[in-house]
Amino acid sequence: MKKVIGTSIAALMMLSLAACGTTKTAETAASSAAETQAQSEAAGEKGPEDYSGSVVVYSPHDADPLNAGVNQFMEKYPNVKVEVVAAGTGELTNRVAAESANPIADVLWGGGADSLAAFKEYFTPYVSEANDSFIDAAYKDPDGLWIGESPLPMVIFYNKELIEKDGLTIPETWEDLTSPEWKGKIAYCLPSKSGSAYTQLCTMMLAHGGKEDGWNFVQKLYENLDGKIVDSSSKCHKMVSDGEFHVGITIEKSAVKYAGNDTVGFIYPKDGTSAVPDGVALIKGAPNEENAKLFIDFVLSKECQTEQSQSWGRRPVRNDMEVGEGMAKLSDLILVDYDFDWAANSKEEIIEKFNDIMVEN
Q: How far apart are CA 292 and CA 286, in angstroms?
């Protein structure tokens, strides 16, 4: 059993229908809602306006895509009130565990699947029938305890101007980052502080020797960090863009935000990256289970996935959709065989060993 630490929530947002933004005219939205309602009634099913009550969503997502997704849901289901608790993945999963005897939340939307896998005992199985066939098995828990909603490849982000100035060659692999010329020039976040940095650590290990021998690679990489390690994953791409580091280890969705910026770029490591998805899960004992399932169905729908991709650069999990501009197809990437259970169940041990390497160096 994972030790549960008391947590404080960073933000509690009560979102109402009045806050909903929309690109449709009121007339178009009303017409669309009426049509959907009529179709549902004809089929003997509930229409969007038949749903009422509330749903409590815990989410570590960035504020803009999170708010956009929730507002889009409330536009479609105007009589369902959404309450959002926004905080980091670790804080939220610990809260879910602490509240398990009397759950407050209904849905956990976001957080890497390896993090969710560590807390599977606090989720209940759910298969989104309307969307399940469009989501490949690699992005779903085999027991239905979490569903991937946005794969997140790990990338190397680089500053072209700094690299050209120093006569260096853009790195193409994780292994390249262990070469002497990159010493002190790499932005990497402390894995104990960031879920994405932890996934990056596991990814690099699996690409270089595996669960045991991969530590030899980690040792070489840490020595090349030269004691410079950042305390927030968001700083990795920002500090590279600002010219404080030549390269950074970051996540695709952060790198694509710089599309059109000629001073920076990113590559998918040729020695193997991962595409661990952010997930969504139904919390065991959810007080508002019907609305929780409705929200999960919406997050996985083409409607929501399209908006999240086009407006916020989030990679869709659905296999019937194209990826956004600047993103490579997953089929074109070299992917490691990412072991979710190992990453989840060995996290404390892996973090402790990484911290030991820091102390020793």
A: 8
31 pLDDT band (50/70/90 cuts)? very low
List pLDDT tens digits, range 34-69.
444 444 444 457 899 999 999 999 999 989 999 999
How many other CB atoms are there within 10 angstroms of residue 332's CB atom?
Answer: 8
Kindly report whether the global pTM for this prediction surpasses the value 0.85: no
Asked if pLDDT for residue 200 goes beyond 50, the answer is yes
What value, to the nearest 5°, has the Cα angle with vertex 58 and ends 53 and 60?
Answer: 145
66-86 burial: b if 16+ Cβ within 10 Å, else e:
bbbbbbbbbbbbeebbbbbbb
Q: What tokens were used for 65?
A: 């895509």
Q: What's the token pair of residue 222?
A: 């840490």
Amino acid at 231: D
In degrees rounded to 5, what are phi and psi of residue 177?
A: -70, -10
